[in-house]
Amino acid sequence: MKIGIIGMGHVGSTLAYTLCLQGLAAELVLIDTNAAKVQAEYLELSDTLQNLNQDVALVKNDYAALADAALVVFCAGDITVLATATDRLAELRVTSKMVEAVAPKLKASGFSGIVISVTNPCDVIALHLANLTGFDKRKVIGSGTLIDTNRLKNRAEREDVLVIGEHGESQVALNVSPEIEKLATGTGWEIYAAKHHTAFGIASSVARIIRVLKTDTGELLPVSTYDEAEGCYYATLTELTLENGVVRRVLPLLNKLEADRLQQSIQTIKRNGQAF
Ligand SMILES: NC(=O)c1ccc[n+]([C@@H]2O[C@H](COP(=O)([O-])OP(=O)(O)OC[C@H]3O[C@@H](n4cnc5c(N)ncnc54)[C@H](O)[C@@H]3O)[C@@H](O)[C@H]2O)c1
């Protein structure tokens, strides 16, 4: 499978490495405005591939090469913006401009596959990217709350938990106490405080989404998808296929409090989306 990665920072480079290790890509198109960074990652990945049993063709900074790609992951950004912020929305001013720079090139490349948008604020950026490319919104998804659900599983030490809504402060954790929910929501910030970025959790989450798309297992994942009625993206359980993107969105049964909180989360995403 040919996969493009736009933004070869912490997230993009860790994703490329993960895809090589897991044998999920036959070809990787690596794109970044920082040509030296792309070259460095190209060299590191080439060194990695010497240790692996599979060949992965690596292409650098070539939008035209995306024409026949099955997937593009959008993870451009500037993580240093978060150094003085307490909310992923602080990135919006910067990352919305990056979408505006990338979308016309992605569209002009002739790409017609699935887009997985990771850049924060994840749900708002997914909609911006879908609108500016004009791609079918079923084929543009956000990485959503798979990562938050994984964090919640670790904090709750249980598997039967789920996070829906915004990948952000208004997210809604199901089946846990408020204390555990708070711990889980703080995980990203705890990692960021020491590492000044997060990468393994999100890269492996995106790799898992790609594996589900590739193998067509029908597994439901909490990713961010477009709700026609609300006119915005937010995370709920979703069935995906490589051919059609979103084929089914499943909202779990919610009690009144959870339903109210989900509605507040949706309103938060919509409010932030009004910035452009
Ligand atoms: N959704 C999630 O769960 C999740 C998790 C972690 C990080 N993120 C987000 O992912 C984004 C990237 O994080 P990071 O740590 O890799 O950031 P980073 O600053 O390390 O890297 C971003 C890269 O994007 C590149 N870039 C900037 N503008 C570009 C453009 N127009 N075209 C192509 N490349 C461009 C930069 O040169 C840089 O190499 C951020 O928005 C971050 O908040 C999301």
From TrEMBL:
Q: Which GO terms describe its molecular function?
A: L-lactate dehydrogenase (NAD+) activity
> So where's the catalytic machinery, residue-wise?
167 (proton acceptor)
All residue ranges annotated as the Lactate/malate dehydrogenase N-terminal domain in the record: 1-142
Answer whether the UniProt record assigns the keyword NAD to this protein: yes
Q: Does the keyword Magnesium apply?
A: no
Q: Which InterPro entries match?
A: L-lactate/malate_DH, Lactate/malate_DH_N, Lactate_DH/Glyco_Ohase_4_C, NAD(P)-bd_dom_sf
User: What are the GO BP annotations of this UniProt entry?
Assistant: lactate metabolic process
Residues bound to NAD(+): 7-12, 32, 118-120
* Record's keyword terms, sorted: Allosteric enzyme, Coiled coil, NAD
Q: Which residues form a coiled coil?
A: 35-69
- Which Pfam families does this chain map to? Ldh_1_N
From the Swiss-Prot or TrEMBL record, give the protein name: Lactate/malate dehydrogenase N-terminal domain-containing protein
